[in-house]
Write a structure and sequence with these properties.
It is a single chain. The chain is α+β, with helices and mostly antiparallel strands. The protein folds into 2 domains: 76-316, DD-peptidase/beta-lactamase superfamily (Beta-lactamase), CATH 3.40.710.10; 322-412, Peptidoglycan synthesis regulatory factor (PBP3), Domain 2 (Sandwich). It is 26% helix and 26% strand. It has 10 helices and 19 strands. The protein has helices at residues 3-18, 112-123, 154-164, 167-178, 181-195, 217-227, 233-237, 260-263, 303-315, 412-423; strands spanning 20-22, 61-63, 85-90, 96-100, 129-131, 151-153, 241-243, 253-255, 267-275, 279-288, 291-300, 318-324, 329-336, 342-347, 351-356, 364-368, 373-374, 382-389, 395-403. It has a 6-stranded mixed beta sheet, with no helix packed on it. Helix 3 packs antiparallel against helix 4 and helix 4 packs across helix 5.
Length: 425
């Protein structure tokens, strides 16, 4: 038996302990699933098996949850969530659907890498070549087995960091984007505070234990919410597997350790994490019917069960409403200096907003449009926006308003004649 087959056999044991049954689609190897599962406790009666019929699980998967043995508040509506701290929010508005100890200071472990990703994406230059330095070589914990002097595109290294939690990749990214790890971590902290995640402090880019490296469930949800506004964030976080030539394995393949991507309908991220100090952690996310949810569990006994409970609960309390249709005619605008007098303008896309159970769901729709158009005009040209604004003034969504035809400018002679006509009434 080669080492890969041996590893696959080892993974199967904790999978059975979790009660996850897998259909035809294979599950990925997970750093977390290689660990011994939750501490041995009292024998409890299994709960109802979750399937695609009674939960958000994909067809072909079922999970038999284990009842929580940790104490929870009497009024907690999800008593079988085992995490010490947890939250689930709707991403476009930040609306909190469930929370438990959301502001308690916690160790984030490798969920830290989500903010490393955000900081690197905002740095830009995904085609830039990252030269692996001595700081990354031989990094503690999960690794991409990078060699000193290797040159790898930043964008590809981000996949390696997020999919298999390469600590060496995180260090190489930090040194490339920030000069050194402490300066990069300081920038991560500053940016997190700017986003509203004010109870967070980073001292490194990978989440290895440090007493001054901490965050909260709420802060991680805030950072994730911002992440979804960035190009490439969802694309990277939702990738199940990808191949690159520099990978130090015969398969040249990276497989994502976040098993929610296989388990849950619409799952599109984000990051697993584990250290002895932090326990098992997961930032998960899923999009269904135009609604994007983000769930965070920190120090969880059963991260997959907890995340399924949270997302099921969230999707059960939010629906969606299409406020703006794609291609919807917005207005007819007059045209100056053109060979036609007016034109209809329309939306370039749609706006779908969440509707929350028991909430007034107040949104203001703001039209940022010019009073007139000036030729020449190209069809499909963006000339304004429609914005959805929350009661607190934050913009939740927007869509471009575009022109619907080409309009040539009048000739110089025609413009002069028009001015003369106008002058004489």
């Amino acid at each position: 038996m080669n080492w890969k087959k041996f590893l696959a056999a080892m993974i199967a044991v904790p999978m059975l302990m979790l009660g996850i049954k897998v259909g035809a689609v294979g599950m990925p190897a997970s750093e977390l699933m290689r660990l011994e599962e939750a501490p041995k406790g009292e024998v409890v009666r299994p709960m109802q098996t979750l399937t695609s019929e009674n939960s958000g699980l994909n067809p072909g998967y079922s999970v038999t949850p284990i009842q929580n043995t940790r104490p929870v508040a009497p009024d907690d509506v999800l008593p079988n969530v085992t995490a010490t701290a947890a939250i689930v929010i709707e991403a476009s508005t930040g609306h909190v659907l469930y929370e438990r100890n959301p502001d308690q200071r916690m160790f984030p472990a490798s969920t830290t890498k989500m903010m490393t990703l955000i900081t690197a994406l905002e740095h830009g230059g995904l085609d830039e070549l990252v030269t692996v330095g001595t700081g990354a070589y031989g990094a503690e914990g999960s690794t991409l087995w990078l060699d000193v002097g290797e040159k790898i595109p930043l964008g590809e290294l981000l996949y390696g960091m997020m999919l298999i939690s390469g600590n060496d990749g995180a260090i190489a990214i930090a040194e490339h984007c920030g000069g050194n790890v402490p300066d990069f971590a300081a920038h991560m902290t500053k940016r997190a505070h700017e986003l509203g995640a004010v109870n967070t402090n980073f001292t490194n880019a990978n989440g290895l234990p440090d007493p001054n490296h901490y965050t909260t469930a709420r802060d991680l949800a805030i950072m994730a919410k911002h992440g979804f506004s960035l190009p490439h964030f969802e694309e990277i976080c939702a990738t199940k597997e990808i191949s690159f030539g520099w990978i130090h394995d015969d398969t040249k393949l990276l497989r994502n350790e976040n098993q929610m991507l296989w388990l849950y309908r619409g799952a599109n991220g984000i990051k697993t994490g584990y250290t002895d100090a932090a326990g098992r952690c997961l930032i998960s996310s899923a999009k269904q019917n135009g609604v994007q949810l983000i769930a965070v569990v920190l120090d969880s006994l059963y991260i997959w069960n907890d995340s399924i409970f949270l997302l099921d609960y969230g999707f059960g309390r939010v629906s969606s409403e299409t406020l703006i249709e794609p291609g919807q005619v917005v207005k007819t605008l007059p045209i100056t200096k053109g060979r036609r007098k007016s034109m209809q303008v329309k939306t370039a896309g749609e706006i779908i907003m969440p509707v929350f159970e028991g909430d007034d769901n107040a949104y203001d729709i703001v039209y940022d449009l010019p009073d007139e158009l000036t030729a020449p005009i190209k069809s499909g040209e963006a000339i304004g926006k429609i914005r959805v604004v929350l009661p607190d003034g934050r913009e939740a969504a927007s869509v471009d308003v575009v022109t619907t035809a080409d309009v040539e400018q009048k000739s110089f002679f025609r413009l002069i004649l028009d001015k003369i006509k106008h002058f004489f009434g």
